[in-house]
């Protein structure tokens, strides 16, 4: 158990730092790492679901720490957070609940494809050209629902989708990253609820799991990420983020390949 818990803590250190730095929520690292770790320490057919559900739960804590740091730099657009949250929350519950009807191998491949796309975007530094203002309530609700459902389905915080969406609508990169971190809160809350409900009556789940959330992994990750997420958020304003994004993208490609062959 000591080795297993140590891996969770190390995962939290890395995921928390990059979550704060890039506003991504940490799930892009947490899900493939937990899937691999669970293969060694847990038996059962629901390992990918447990990895994604646990990732969602950890993002809730990581985002709190990250948002506090971004808020101190006055970078969070709370007006955008408030208008995106209703759609995000509905989409998050929907994505988490739908996951129970998707097989673990298929869910792993969906995650891999999305992660590879995000990594490619980071590696090539592709950004949409800002050419319009944020849409009204109806448009934000639709966008929030789509972002929330996809993010919850694969266990990511939504920053990889929220950030380019905001930049496309003339929000500065610095504010988009900070605001995406804040939007990860409703995504994580709704996704966690969805995975709890979706896995509530599933048989043969491991000990210490409630629904699709495995609590030893949750505790190990959040103990570390709660402290490293604010460090990453503070470093957003000091480190060469573009260079770090490219390094991070290469790591994501490796993890995506691993997930695709789950």
Automatic annotation (TrEMBL):
Belongs to the 4-toluene sulfonate uptake permease (TSUP) (TC 2.A.102) family. It holds the Pfam family TauE. Keywords: Cell membrane, Membrane, Transmembrane, Transmembrane helix. This is Probable membrane transporter protein. InterPro entries: TM_pro_TauE-like (IPR002781). Its main location: membrane. The chain crosses the membrane at residues 7-40, 46-67, 79-98, 176-200, 212-231, 243-261. It is found in: Cell membrane; Membrane. GO terms for cellular component: plasma membrane. It is a multi-pass membrane protein.
């Amino acid at each position: 158990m000591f080795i297993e818990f140590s891996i969770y803590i190390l995962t939290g250190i890395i995921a928390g730092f990059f979550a704060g730095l890039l506003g991504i929520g940490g799930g892009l690292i947490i899900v493939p790492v937990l899937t691999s770790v669970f293969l060694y320490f847990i038996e059962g057919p629901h390992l990918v679901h447990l990895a994604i559900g646990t990732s969602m739960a950890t993002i809730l804590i990581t985002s709190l720490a990250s948002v506090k740091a971004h808020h101190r730099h006055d970078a969070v657009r709370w007006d955008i957070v408030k208008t995106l949250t209703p759609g995000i929350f509905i989409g998050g519950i929907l994505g988490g609940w739908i996951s129970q009807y998707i097989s673990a191998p298929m869910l792993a491949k969906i995650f891999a494809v999305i992660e590879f796309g995000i990594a490619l975007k980071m590696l090539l530094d592709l950004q949409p050209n800002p050419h319009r203002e944020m849409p009204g309530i109806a448009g934000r609700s639709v966008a929030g629902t789509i972002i929330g459902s996809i993010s919850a389905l694969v266990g990511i915080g939504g920053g990889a989708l929220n950030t380019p969406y905001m930049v496309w609508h003339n929000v500065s990169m610095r504010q988009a990253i900070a605001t995406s971190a804040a939007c990860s809160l409703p995504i994580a809350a709704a996704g966690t609820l969805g995975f709890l409900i979706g896995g509530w009556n599933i048989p043969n789940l491991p000990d210490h799991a409630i629904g699709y959330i495995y609590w030893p992994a949750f505790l190990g990750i959040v103990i570390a990420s709660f402290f490293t997420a604010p460090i990453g958020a503070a470093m957003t304003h000091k480190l060469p983020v573009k260079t770090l994004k490219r390094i991070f993208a290469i790591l994501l490609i490796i993890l995506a390949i691993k997930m695709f062959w789950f």
